Amino acid sequence: MILPLDASPTGDPSGADWRSLLGAPGRDAAATPLALGIELRIRDASGTNPWAARPQRTATPRDVAKRTGEVVLGIRPLERSAATGAWVQGAATWDAVRRSPAQYGRARSRWFADLLSIARDTLLSGTAGDWLVVDLIESALLWGHLRTAADAGIPLVAVQKSTTVVLAEVAEITASVERDDDGDLRVRAQAAIDGRPIDAGAARPIGLTGLYEVVPHGARLRITLAEAPLTSAVRALLGAPGGVVVPRDDEAAFLRDAYPLLARRVAVRARHGVELPALPPPRAVLLLSFLRGDTVRYAFEWDYRGFGRVPFGTGAEAVRDEGAEDAGRRALHELWSSHLGEDLAPSGAFHDVAAAEFVTRVVPALESDGVIVEVSGRRKAYRELTGEPEIIVEAVESTDPDWFDLGILVRIDGRTIPFQPLFTALSQGRKRLLLVDGSHFSLAHPALDRLRELLDEAAQLDEWETGPRISRSQTALWEDFEDLADEAEPAVAWRELADGLRSADAVPEVAVPSGLRADLRPYQKAGFDWLAFLWGHRLGGILADDMGLGKTLQLLALIQHARETGEERPFLVIVPTSVLATWRSEASRFVPSLRLLVRDTTQGVALADAIGAVDVVLTTYAIARLDEESFAAHRWAGLVLDEAQFVKNPATKVHRAIASFPADATFAVTGTPMENSLSELWALLKLTAPGLFPSARKFRETYIQPIEEGKVPENEEGAPYRQRRLDQLRRRIRPLVLRRTKELVAPDLPARQEQVLEVELGSAHRALYETVLQRERQKVLGLLDDLDRHRFIVFRSLTLLRMLSLAPGLIDPADAKIGSRKLDVLLERIVELQAEGHRALVFSQFTSFLDLAAARLRAAGIPFAHLDGSTRHRQDVVDGFRAGEQPVFLISLKAGGFGLTVTEADYVFLLDPWWNPAAEAQAADRTHRIGQTRQVFVYRMIATDTIEEKVLALQRRKARLFTAVLDDEALFARSLTADDIRGLFDS
Q1: CATH of the domain spanning 752-945, picked from 3.40.50.300, 3.30.565.10, 3.60.10.10, 3.40.980.20
Q2: Mean pLDDT of the chain
């Protein structure tokens, strides 16, 4: 409503009193004063009809002394007589005062209205005329309201001139138990108001929140009101002036049932030889709820025997014994933390293996400690396996000569452990494993640690599948179904979107978003334009720039662009856990206006309730897999997969989960879209361009077999046919892949000098190596006739030789005295570099070898940082090195291969070569990236005349495949042309 400037809301042309602008009383000062009248009244005893209204009248001192009828305390408003100045009833009824703020003043009228509301919360009857009976008011708000009467200018006055009224601060009730002459117990109430003892028989309760004292003095009465927490038991005592008698025959029942209830609310004193028992302590109760999906919810309560349950936290319930509860909580906390290593919480939930461990370890311990356990839901029988793991390796027929299959059996306590969940748990670095039948066991065992290490290395070889493979006929059948699935709606929809590119001639330039707080380098601007071009057609792609060229910044620019051009739905960004902090900090730095939600747990607020007001949801691959259903239920504007090599295997759960997340466009971000095989490139394109190569089988036949394996049809010549397939593949993926190398787009980056540093083994080391080599060679040669059945045994031999090339002590601690020539050379270089002010990164595949290096550095007094898969607080370790606290950073290749920027170092030592050249390149790129101002030196330390030389040769062969597909002639760094776009639709 808009009023004219010369009008008031009431329409009164005279306007409001100007004093209201100053907060002055204004016209309220002229209002009729009010007081709260208090009168002791007496009600006649109830007649034959208990529902009939009982007459009331003013009580006299004689009524109080004779205790005739029922005495109650009445209240009502009074107004000051203009003629006499006395407090009189006048026109001041409850309704009139509440409805007439202009007559009585707004503050006073509001005060009486609030008092009436407080009384009516519980006072539904018991009024007589315009009187309210205070005795029946239950609300504890009464006392605070009465104390504010003076501030509102409302005195508390007695209606009768012969009566005085006092509002005290607080009253205290206690009780005594004594024995009568006839042997019965007598329980009496004792009371004090503001520290002054009073006759308990003169005190009358007001609800359960206070009392009032009535004391006759001749022809006068004094009424004192005071707040005091009461209980039903205390009310009963106050209502019995002579006390409550407990016959001797009922004494045991009284001490068991009534005494604890009374003693926990008021102090009880024993008199005249009475001995009172100690109060029984409350018993802790654990409520267990077994839910579906191996979830166990729990909540603690206190059970006061005979008096019910109270919450585990502190509270004001009458039965509570705070001292006993505190002692019980401390004991439970000690037991809880000793088993779980965390603080006790009153309620919570455990999931999966944590639920099993809780039920099998903690719950029995709590029961033994006297905790009552009550179960709801169907209790699952969990069993902890504690025996020694027995590992058996069996060869299994393979369906593909480029892969090897293993039959690995692990038995614990006679239970055969399925390989699939065991492999997943070991590869994810989990501490325990829960099986579907409720069996669970620790993975922290030397035998399983060794298996974990071998599995990690085998997984990086990409010669390992995450479970047993099926027969040849089943494989073909599965691929046929896969072809049909890939022709389903997602692939068809993608091809319809891609048709929109047919009319495009090139990538247009796009204005840099106004909300971007960064200056894009020319190649970064070109990358942003390309991303915006694909986004405009709602197509995804692969941003495959070299490490350190700012891929994250380009993606943040795209998201800001999408938001500024009208997109309101959030983007979903999925990253490795180690990169989460980097994304969060860069988003805050470069696009501060974007609202970011970090989803790093499956607990807490439901995803659907949390994304309503955000622009970007940032989560990890682990959370995306675990909370697949929640992410799949939302339609995302775009999906960004950072370090997308995490989803290069379409058979994994995380790949399948991400494929189910609906998004207008999916962008994969990785400097290594293909590390070992073209199948990895196909897996990324399946997510980003689901209709480009709809059949896994056809892709393998058309591209993988001729390009990687040299399989050529009988009527074709090998080299020309292979080249045609390679050219066709590059032409098909060209519009959807953008790759720039540092050498191509960042010429200002200091040069990186790489050198192979050959290390001769010591004489004792050489003799041992040759002995083991001959033994393993004989073993391996005997298995080569059926390599597919024995690849794991062969790989184990290769791993043993690799570790032996580094240090004999890694294989047998008894040989540790032989030492390691590599560590000698490394220490010599580090000492020299430290003296010259340089800093170095030291990488190894084997954490055990890094531990040896750490021991050597420690002995030499050289500070160092250490990062591997077991490191907690990863970012703190990195920040410490970057701050200059240590000149050396020891890093396991797997833990430090991505999500790490340490341009403070300018030397890199690779202690052992790995099969995959991309993994080593990523390690070197930790320091050779934008921001580096010094030349970077990379040393590959190779033990001469050992298996390490063979690994180096294999690296070079794999690198040629990557270069042929993605790096040759910088094809994927050039601007798109119309011919390039038409290449999407080549058959």
Answers
A1: 3.40.50.300
A2: 78
